[in-house]
């Protein structure tokens, strides 16, 4: 009996505690942060919009009582400068794929059958041809390599996405590659041996990126909570990744008065979209700090409900500290790669990746919405993990 009364009282306390926690996160303030970031336009690394976003984050973090440092770094990036595909007298709206060499190639089209999987290339002789293949199934870079091995001079990847959507090979392609939507270029699948000219025109530019770091003191942290604040050209990047940025900013505010925040750095990464530059450079330049980390939590695309669950993936020991039930949240798993936790994981740091999945507006001009309630949920789960880990 007593025990029962005790557990009821305990339950009441837990519920009260949860309400207090839930109320502490201000969705109004998060909505204001989101609008402030979106007002800058696409936050492409190295542009005035990204600089303005970094200044906004720094000002908000200082207001919350943190010492803010910028972590500058440079890298080179290629930019499309009018890549074109001409077949007969027709010009198609192609876009170069990041990682493609800049080169003009000319030859008859050759169509790779089926979905363009490895087996579909097996019996082909593409010598002197420009390969036309559907995107998907296996990475585009693998398709480019398979095409090159069979003698292709260039490759056109036909996508479900609209023409103009930016793709990356995620590495160096041996042959020039460009994408074209199926709706604009599906006809090419019937134009085998037609003469084509693919002219991939790119320029390489130096980019100055800047991570924003908020901390309470100079001691090395035990945990890092991060989110990338940069976005791709042409996309406002609301879900990718103003959502994670605002969630981490609000989490930093919530934890500012807790002694635990003395052991945490909140880092807003730049240059993620161009290849995880901000996180890679940070890990490279801080080996000792990185060795002392007990956790790195990364929030990316947490503002749109794609799967009905909050995906959390990474270290099983850290994952076990996520108390989704207490917050009445459906939590699932998240893929291993693709964002700023990766360089930390590769350095041996236990990581968790918070991710709600790729929404239909991913990397498009229509990425204009993120839900502060969902963002707050991700931040609350992260907070619970930090409290259990560091207390
Ligand atoms: Zn992202």
Explain this structure to me?
There is one protein chain. The protein has helices at residues 2-24, 27-38, 48-63, 118-121, 140-149, 182-185, 238-255, 277-285, 287-291, 316-319, 341-346, 372-390, and strands at 67-80, 84-87, 90-92, 95-96, 103-111, 130-134, 154-159, 177-181, 195-200, 202-215, 223-228, 264-269, 295-299, 310-314, 331-332, 351-355. It contains 12 helices and 16 strands. With 391 residues, the protein is of the alpha/beta class. A hairpin with a 2-residue loop joins strand 2 (84-87) and strand 3. Mean pLDDT is 93; it is low at 1-6. Helix 2 (27-38) crosses helix 7, helix 2 (27-38) crosses helix 12 and helix 7 crosses helix 12. Residues 228, 240-241, 272, 300-301, 339 line the site of zinc ion.
Throw out a few tags for this protein.
391 residues, alpha/beta, Glucose Oxidase, domain 1, eight-stranded mixed β-sheet, 12 helices, 25% strand, binds zinc ion
Spell out the blueprint of helices and strands.
Blueprint lengths: L1 H23 L2 H12 L9 H16 L3 E14 L3 E4 L2 E3 L2 E2 L6 E9 L6 H4 L8 E5 L5 H10 L4 E6 L17 E5 H4 L9 E6 L1 E14 L7 E6 L9 H18 L8 E6 L7 H9 L1 H5 L3 E5 L10 E5 L1 H4 L11 E2 L8 H6 L4 E5 L16 H19 L1
Parallel strand pairs: 5-6, 6-7, 7-8, 11-12, 11-13, 13-16, 14-15
Antiparallel strand pairs: 1-10, 2-3, 2-9, 4-8, 5-9, 10-12, 14-16
Helix pairs in contact: 2-7, 2-12, 7-12
The chain binds zinc ion.
What is the CATH class name of the largest domain?
Alpha Beta
Low-confidence stretches: 1-6
Helix percent reads 25-40%
CATH topology of the largest domain: Aminopeptidase
Strand content: 15-25%
List the secondary-structure elements in sequence, H or E.
HHHEEEEEHEHEEHEEEHEHHEEHEHEH
- What is the arithmetic mean of pLDDT? 93
